[in-house]
Specification:
Helix content is 5%, strand content 43%. It is mainly beta. The chain has a five-stranded antiparallel beta sheet with strand order 1-4-10-7-8. A three-stranded antiparallel beta sheet has the order 9-5-12, with no helix packed on it.
Length: 148
């Protein structure tokens, strides 16, 4: 009788965000952020952030940034959190232009096969205006990857 070896492999998927991309600082709104001659504000922006997805699922996957709600925003007292959300945008991967996160989930990667995929072009942007009171602002993002 010969020995027999067997095993099973289930479907799996891995989402990896490097530690350096877990906290992003967009900077500070100050007197350099506004041009009184043109009336234009300079956006706060941070570029070139990475996300990796690895899967054996033959049909592929979809990676999204989940739509935000006001509970994901911290801002000074008196600041409308919904307004903050409308001024925050993201792009990268399959999303080639900046998109506000209040309109639904934003698809970053959508692939129809298994393998190792990454994007290192994720950018975050905030457009300031006079309604931004002094204090700290933050938004927590939730990335979700699902099998197809």
């Amino acid at each position: 009788m010969s020995p027999q070896v067997s095993w099973n492999a289930g479907n799996w998927i891995i989402l990896y965000i490097p530690e350096a991309d877990m906290k992003v600082d967009l900077g500070t709104i100050d007197d350099e952020s506004y041009d009184p001659v043109t009336g234009e504000w300079t956006d706060l922006e941070s570029t070139n952030h990475s996300v990796y997805v690895i899967t054996n699922h033959i049909s592929g996957f979809t990676l999204v940034i989940n739509q935000l709600t006001a509970t994901n925003v911290t801002a000074p007292t008196g600041v409308d959190k919904d307004t903050v959300l409308t001024k925050f945008k993201v792009k990268g991967g399959d999303q080639t232009s900046y998109t506000v996160l209040t309109g639904g989930d934003v698809a970053i990667l959508d692939r129809d096969s298994n393998g190792i995929y990454s994007t290192s072009d994720i950018s975050y942007k905030y457009t300031p205006d006079t309604s931004d009171l002094s204090g700290s602002y933050s938004i927590s993002l939730t990335y979700t990857v699902t099998e197809k």
